[in-house]
Amino acid sequence: MYDINKVREDFPILSRTVYDRPLVYLDNAATTQKPRVVVESIMEEYYNVNANVHRGVHYLSQQATDLHEASRETVRRFINARSTSEIIFTRGTTESINLVASSYCDAFMNEGDEVIVSVMEHHSNIVPWQLQATRKGIVIRVIPMDDRGELMLDEYEKLFNEKTRMVSVAHVSNVLGTVNPVKEMARIAHAHGVPFMLDGAQSAPHFAVDMQQLDCDFFALSGHKLYGPTGVGVLYGKEEWLDRLPPYQGGGEMIDNVSFEKTTFERLPFKFEAGTPDYVATNGLAKAIDYVTALGMDNIEKHERELTKYVMEKMKNIDGMAVFGTSEHKDAVISFLVGNIHHLDMGTLLDRLGIAVRTGHHCAQPLMHRLGIQGTVRASFALYNTKDEIDALIAGIERVSRMF
Ligand code: PMP
What we know:
This is Cysteine desulfurase. It contains 14 helices and 17 strands. The chain is α/β, with parallel strands linked by helices and 404 residues long. It folds into 2 domains: 4-28 and 296-403, Aspartate Aminotransferase, domain 1; 40-293, Type I PLP-dependent aspartate aminotransferase-like (Major domain) (Aspartate Aminotransferase, domain 2, 3-Layer(aba) Sandwich). The chain is globular and about 70 Å long. Bound molecules: 4'-deoxy-4'-aminopyridoxal-5'-phosphate (PMP).
């Protein structure tokens, strides 16, 4: 295991105060804080290396290109993809899913064809498909869940028919914390000859993800939720699929040859990377990945699971506590409401105690409808959170509860 106090020193922001109280940062599902090595790599690259990648013959451009391409290899290793051709840099999970929805629909979906998503999706795995529904008349089918927040696999199987062309689901729910049985779900999709995409925004930061073991066809993640910079993310795609998809955007970097009569495209992964990439951020992401890899993803998972177990136990003792998402397969996200206290009131008052949580629908309004609520308070954990911070959260909730 790692030394949590030493680890916390790597994240300068964690020692600041808000309202003269120590910051207790429990909004990690929205974004994580950055270790010094990430911030320093950004500064260092802008101060000493900065030049556009892939184009220059000069020294700095080659150095920046080497860093950028080494980052791709770091990502490949981290998620155990077969080749760097399968690693596309994007702006984040949202762009990764939009890319697949757009290119895949262009190539493989016609009016009436169906995509399967689940009731617990983030809007970024609903709206891109709806945009395609408007453009191409595709149909969205929804996997329901039970009251513990687990997807109903028997209902999932029933959704397949001869029109099904794609399954796209969250690996981990950003509201319930449910870790979905995605290996089994991929197997079922493949048995029907349908590709399987995972929204890994809330899984990749919390436990080791292995593309070859999961056998998903596409996987999306966001750098900023993985202790890396904002504005960079990854789309993994099996080469056999990426090869068959048309480009998402056009421009520089993604072409082989351009004339007004005919343009040919670059090989993978560049075919999907039009324009200047955020090469400083990709390098920052690689530094974040090196950082979590050195701590050990298994250690991070163990630490966060312990925190989750601890908070779930403590919450049982709070009067009127309702926790949404009680699956055994639960990751470091706790959504809750206490009695009739509005989520926004709870969040605002916790904030005054220095405790940062998120309130509202968490970009999952259909899930809120399913739960019959407007929103929740959400506490989400990262590798640097402590049991003391959870004690502060519990004491804070009790204090706020007494005020109502
Ligand atoms: N999917 C899930 C499950 C998420 O939690 C989030 C971020 N809240 C996203 C997608 C979107 O990620 P981003 O805004 O970084 O593109």
